[in-house]
Fold this sequence. Notes:
The protein is α/β, with parallel strands linked by helices. It is about 40% helix and about 20% strand. It folds into three domains: about 40-195, Alpha-D-Glucose-1,6-Bisphosphate, Chain A, domain 3 (3-Layer(aba) Sandwich); about 200-440, Alpha-D-Glucose-1,6-Bisphosphate, subunit A, domain 3 (Alpha-D-Glucose-1,6-Bisphosphate, Chain A, domain 3); about 440-565, TATA-Binding Protein (2-Layer Sandwich). The protein has helices at about 1-10, 20-30, 30-40, 65-80, 100-110, 125-135, 170-180, 200-215, 240-245, 280-285, 320-335, 355-360, 370-380, 410-425, 430-440, 455-470, 550-565, and strands at about 50-55, 85-90, 115-120, 140-145, 150-160, 195, 225-230, 250, 290-295, 300-305, 315, 340-345, 365-370, 385-390, 395-400, 440-450, 475, 480-485, 490-495, 500, 510-515, 520-525, 530-540. Keywords: Isomerase, Magnesium, Metal-binding, Phosphoprotein.
Amino acid sequence: MNSVIDTAKTWLTDFFDPQVKKEIQDLIEKDHEELKERFYKNLEFGTGGMRGIMGVGTNRINKYTLGKSTQGLSNYLERVYPDQELKVVIAYDCRHNSDTLAKTVAEVLSANGIKVYLFSELRTTPELSFAVRHLDCQAGIVLTASHNPPEYNGYKVYWTDGGQIVPPQDKEIIEEIDSLRYEDINFKAKEELIQLISSEVDDAFIKASVKNGDFNAPGKDDFKIVFTSLHGTSITVIPEVLKQAGYKHVTVIEEQAKPDGNFPTVKSPNPEEPEALEMALAKARELQADIVIGTDPDSDRLGIAVRNLEGEMQLLNGNQTMILMTEFLLEERKKQGFEGNEFIASTIVSTPMMHSLADAYKVECKTGLTGFKWIAKMIKDHPDQHFIGGGEESFGFMVGDFVRDKDAVTSTLLACEIGAMAKANGSSFYEALIQAYVKYGFYKEKLVSLTKKGISGAEEIKQMMVDLRESPFKSIDGSEVVRIEDYNSGEARNLKTGETEKLDLPKSNVLIYVAADGTRVAARPSGTEPKIKFYISINAPLQRAKDFEKVSAELDAKIDRIIAEMKIS
């Protein structure tokens, strides 16, 4: 505890604001447990940025922790681009303090002689990614904590291609940040270098979204959409995108339309959670709508609900929407004629069905680590190839390469195009999904997240990963484990032959079991939340659409057995 107090006392110098010093002094005198949580470690700038609880301390999001990261980024940009005018664009979401923290970040950049384009009001993450290239910037920053609870905020850094930073930039920026003291932060803004931006970028982004997501689907006049922004940024752009694409029946959930960092109508502003879409689902039932779409606070994730075979609204998961969106884009590309250089993309914890889809269309499916920055890197590293689209299980998708991060704006339009076209052809979004299972195999996935908060929780998660590596499962639901992929060591081991092979991806704390029957179970500690996540994927053939319910129930039962066997409920 003495070391924690010593660290806290370094924040009692005159460099820090008086209210900050007072709060720390009070904690030193009255609340050692809270002091420990705030100062026992530095909030790390990870390989994409920072995310954490807001407040005073080294393990919190505040003007000093963000200021230090921004100073390090400024130093790095000056070193890498010594003879160029440096430009950075900044956006922020609806969270508490996002606007003031964004202004602080802009001030530090300007203090270091860097031109800053700062959005005048909250904007979506995909628009920030688009703006980096549109404004010819070397970097971009968005202040957001995505779908985390209200007490969180965060800071993501984008590079010249519009994608989040990847090797070698990420490690080099981290080294620069780690070499600094808080007193090295230059807070003396040069206001003349900060330019507010608004409609000029909005108009270009909306035009690009419509161009990439509108396929002139028939039946738009008869397609009913219910949309909720869940108190987030997407309200600034999605209704306008749908309008310009020709959709006339769009109902916005007004109770959730006003941006609000408290997210007052939901337990969590996460479209992965069925509860978050309850208001929209109720409105859809009232209006007999065809589709419900909800987005998270920074509008990179989207949740979709469509009518199932019984006519009830059913929330789809990220793997299901990814498959249908990718198939649709591939089919549209097929109409133009494949050139032989196309590829789709996904991640190691997403559905293997993407590979079955790629095989059917004879295109490449590239697979990367979790996170769209790796898909952006694929696009950057292979300029001779044409990226069709791709996504990951966590309710994110990217349509083409004009945005280099998951994009709920264009994906919302694409989902409506798929639904409208299917309805006009006497089918539905859901029936199209079932037909995909018939064609490519019925893959079903389940994500199990275990929350382990605080210092003890972090240790528990660490031990769970150790146990999974040192005492691996020999079988899963009666099927022998034949392969273990350890992305931390960078090796995959064939348990039948004992042979190992190198995994051609950067190292990451992910472990994947592969069973003889095609079952895959991946374990991965979250990089942004106090959670360990288990991704279960199983599959079976589906010979006929009318067998869907029967095979679906069998796969559900198998998943339940796996969860019980692995004790991860």
